[in-house]
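Sequence in, structure out.
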Amino acid sequence: MANEEELTDTLNSYPGKDERVIYFHVPYCDRICTFCNLNRGLKKDDLESYTRYLLEEIEKYSEYEYIKSKEFKAVYFGGGTPTTLTCKQLERILKSIERNFPLSNDVEFTFETTLHNLDYEKVKLMQDLGVNRFSVGIQTFADEGRKTLGRAFNRAETIKRLSSLREMFKGTLCIDIIYSYPGQTRENVLSDAEAAIKCDVDSISFYSLMLHDGSRLNAQIQAGEIYFDRTLESDKMLHNTFYEFILEKGFDLLELSKLVKPEKDEYRYIKLKYLNSDVLPIGIGAGGRLGDIGIYRMMPQKSMFTRKNERYDFFNGILGLMQFGKYDLLHFKEILKEKEYEAFMEKFSHFVSMGYFENNGGESFRLKSDGVFWGNNIAIELLKGIIKESSEFCPEGEDYTRHEKTTSAFHHK
């Protein structure tokens, strides 16, 4: 653990990292999806007080040497649904960011959003004030699936609104799609893929439904109100059906759960997080790090601080390398010690023999469809082998393969 005094010392110092991002968390929605148990609440009258809180945090941090000395390459608003904020509230926040934080000329500026709280006025305002990337929570276009997941609008209206947003918005348009929800068929997932192509989106994040305690959908399933007979085989079939269809339409795998049109979405925010870059967290529920200090904002006046170290960054960086579906064996050989590399190659060869990888030329390999489906599990198993042989970082008698910290940030099946 660390403390706020150590964070203040960091803030008063000069930053050592060039790659930096800002994360804002807005824990409010104007409707709650049935599958969600995230740190969020229904939209309330206190959005104005929360706006003032964010503005105060922006002003506070902008005074420190660590913040004002180098540019930020990405800004990401997550939630909740940040676009529940009104146009006037968004305008004040976005102008304050522009005024107080040094942003790069090509900054990637993302807002998570839903279709039902975007209109022409809000899209134009945000675009004029620098927002150049929307991540839209579609989840599915299917009528029954949208009812099950608690989404607004039917299929026709969803396609109409997403197509209209595409015409209005000149930046990068991304959507989230969930597969393997109750009642979903192969035809449903193909229809979702076709609709995404029709709406001309730039990238698609594609996730298997995760059931969490505290979500309404999980309670309905547990009570027998909704029948859910998902199996690993059905999960993989739906994944591969969508994945292979989208690849055939010219998309590439950018990250284990993200498919993109070539050169259309960099997803810089997540890439820089994988590289252990600085993440300035602002807002209740926001997490990040500055220098070696990890930060999690639980309440305006209550935060948790941890001390990152070389061991954490080394292992987390390796895990980050494995998130993009491509494995350069020469690079792993360069960064790993001999025994670590041998342990890595023993497990890697096993996964190749199972048909999860294909040779991409020389010492370069990439994941096949089944490999992408199991991609996070493969990465964790490879990392465990490396950690087990990592004498430099693992004192005798301590087993870091059991440390949840190396895996908790990633979605795995």
